[in-house]
Amino acid sequence: MRILIVDRVWGQRQKIRGWLVQGGYSAPNVLESEDGVAALELLKSLDFSVDTVICDWEDPRVDGPTLAAEVRRLAGASVDFIAAGEFDAARRAGALARGAADAINRPIRPELLLQKLVALEKKRQQGRKVDPSQTSRFRLMQADAPVQKPAPLAPHLWEVLRRTCRHLEVGPGLRVPCEPANPRLWWIERGSVFVRETRDDGIEVGHRAGPEDFFGELAFGGGAYRNFEAATEEPTWLAWQDAETVRRITGEHSILFYYLRNLANTRARLYSRSGLPVEKGLSGTLESLKILDLLQMLHAAKRTGILRLDGPGRTAFLQFAGGQIIHAESHGEIGEKMVYLAMSWTRGQFEFYVGPETPGLRSVSTDMMKLLMEGAALQSGAPAP
């Protein structure tokens, strides 16, 4: 969800931004403008791909009603406005009549603002199913398009999975013997398979898997199937591991659990046609979001999962529990030195694998705020506090 804050007072914008980030919204998706003219130019540059505008409705330099009317003229009803000001019943009705989806009184209460954002998001999801605007349709198509393949599994985890795996050769057009009641983790060594799956939450997914692609991974990422079918499209060489072995491996290597969970979520987001919401992770580049800002954002949002960092020549994994880093590893090395190594990277890609806390090695005990302070000191060249 992308949000734009329009307020001429810089301190007020920062206060609202802080509430949104603490409430779980992604910092790069919280934008700011100081007046209506700048806000309209920013919205045009983004092709109006903003979900909600929190707008100082009564300041003439912002001119909320005019901004809302111009956005509606250019983008249809795809952007919601929350008017901020001093509203009695009559003035609130006037704001709604002039383009606001909701109104909130100053001083703004953060919990009320977050509630209004959630309510608008639910309403927006229902509206998209019925009659989305042209802009919304374009954005949904963009979100649905598989623009890139998920990051490959780390080589040492492939080695562990393949060590005792079993193989099966299947001719073209034949069903793979996979059943939801007897889950196995499958992957393809050669060939291709088309998979149809119905999940316990009602999401239906159809996707094609090729060499070194997994299928049947949802059962090992904390989910369950109602129905699962796979059929080969050509002569195919398959490999698989039984459920007990995979669960033992994920117990020893929690990264694999998060990888499989994230893979299942990504697959549903890209290939589902159910319209049901799917939990999203976080991904991007370290050039666009600095590593310390990324870590601070995950800490403030109290996220739990694994952060994968593909940096210069190596990959690091940082495990979070409630916003605290509890384990770090890179190429067999573990501990806080791996956190500080990752903090030095300025180039590369990141991907956050959402998931519950899992048992396993804990190699980091320092509080997250201290890690961030020491990381900032190391980057600046100053002595660590």
Question: How would you describe what is shown here?
Answer:
This protein has 385 residues and is α+β, with helices and mostly antiparallel strands. It folds into 3 domains: 3-144, Rossmann fold (3-Layer(aba) Sandwich), CATH 3.40.50.2300; 155-271, Jelly Rolls (Sandwich), CATH 2.60.120.10; 282-380, no CATH class. Helix content is 37%, strand content 26%. It is built from 12 helices and 18 strands. The strands form 4 sheets. The protein has a 6-stranded antiparallel sheet with strand order 13-18-14-15-16-17. Strands 2-1-3-4-5 form a 5-stranded parallel sheet, with helices on both faces. It has a 4-stranded antiparallel sheet with strand order 6-12-7-10. Helix 1 links the parallel strand 1 and strand 2. Helix 8 crosses helix 9. The longest helix has 21 residues, at 110-130. The two termini are 36 Å apart. The model is unreliable at 128-148 (pLDDT under 50).
CATH superfamily membership of the largest domain: Response regulator
Number of alpha- plus pi-helical segments: 12
Shape: globular
Radius of gyration: 24 Å
Low-confidence stretches: 128-148
Largest sheet: 6 strands, antiparallel
Q: Compute the number of structural domains.
A: 3
The fold-level CATH name of the largest domain is: Rossmann fold
Find the count of extended strands (DSSP E, 2+ residues): 18
Question: What can be said about this structure in brief?
Answer:
The protein has 385 residues and is an alpha+beta fold. The chain has 12 helices and 18 strands. Strand 4, helix 4 and strand 5 form a beta-alpha-beta unit.
